[in-house]
Amino acid sequence: MEKFIDIKRSKEEVNLLSPLIWAYIGDSVYELYIRTKLVNETKQKPHALHMASIKYVKAKAQAEILQKIENMLSEEEKDIVRRGRNAENHHLPKNANIQEYMYATAFEALIGYLYLTQQDARLKEILESSVDENEKK
Question: Annotated catalytic, 79?
Fold first, then answer.
């Protein structure tokens, strides 16, 4: 399939963006990945799809996934995660503690960074590993 979204920033420009920008786009990339996976693999109705997606996209689940896949990350990816985790975010989480929220932001930052730098093969590998780790629970 031809890409229908044109990413216009170079890797150098993406590196200069705030990790919260990476997390912003990473949140939607991960959500789309999970929703697509559920639509492909189940025959659920929209509400049931939404409820099923929550177990993957909630902060606690993302924090746990990041901790489980951390050993497969490169040094550059670990640096992206560190920057995402340490980003000063003034949002208070509703359904997670501060540490879970920081790690979830770090996970989303990694996903967003890989997406924005068009590292599609690596992004796919991490997304697939993330889902595998979540399903082992």
Answer: no
